[in-house]
Design goal:
Blueprint: H1 2-6, H2 19-25, H3 29-51, H4 55-80, H5 88-104, H6 107-122, H7 126-134
Protein name: MATE efflux family protein
Transmembrane segments: 57-77, 83-103
Organism: Prunus dulcis (Almond)
C-alpha cells in the first residue's frame, strides 16, 4: 500500500506505456492501496479466527458481509450510482468485524482451554510431567 501511494504517478509504468492509461491509473492509488491493505489483512485475521475454532462464526460473517452487505452495496454503487466501486465494502466490514472479535477474545481463557484439551486428548498429564521435571 505504501509503495503504491508513494509511486502513484509512476506505478503504472510497470504495466503500460500508454500515457492516457497512466493518467487514469494515477487517479486510483488510494482505492488500490486500501484494497491491497484489506486483502492482505483480512485473510490473516480470518485464519486466526478459523484456527481459534470459530469456523462457523467466520462463515456467518463471510456470508453476511459479502452476500447480504457487500454484494447489494457493490451493485448499488457500481451500477446504479455509476461509481464503479464493488465488493471492497464487504471486505472492509468483514475485516472490522473479525478485528472486533479478536479484540474481545479472552486469550488467557483460550490458552486454558487448549491446555485442557492437550491434557485430555494427549494421554499425558502435563502438570505431572512438568512437576517431575522441576523436582
Amino acid at each position: 500500500m505504501i509503495v503504491i501511494l508513494i509511486t502513484k504517478d509512476n506505478f503504472s509504468l510497470i504495466f503500460t506505456s500508454d500515457k492516457h492509461l497512466q493518467q487514469a491509473v494515477a487517479k486510483l492509488p488510494y482505492l488500490l492501496g486500501i484494497t491491497v491493505l484489506l486483502n492482505s489483512v483480512q485473510p490473516v485475521i480470518s485464519g486466526v479466527a478459523i484456527g481459534g475454532g470459530w469456523q462457523a462464526m467466520v462463515a456467518y460473517i463471510n456470508l453476511g458481509c459479502y452476500y447480504i452487505f457487500g454484494h447489494p452495496l457493490g451493485h448499488l454503487l457500481g451500477y446504479t450510482a455509476k461509481l464503479g466501486v464493488s465488493m471492497i465494502c464487504g471486505t472492509a466490514l468483514q475485516t472490522l468485524l473479525l478485528l472486533f472479535v479478536l479484540y474481545k477474545t479472552n486469550w488467557n481463557n483460550e490458552m486454558e482451554q487448549a491446555t485442557n484439551r492437550m491434557r485430555k486428548w494427549g494421554g499425558e498429564d502435563i502438570t505431572a510431567e512438568n512437576g517431575a521435571q522441576t523436582a
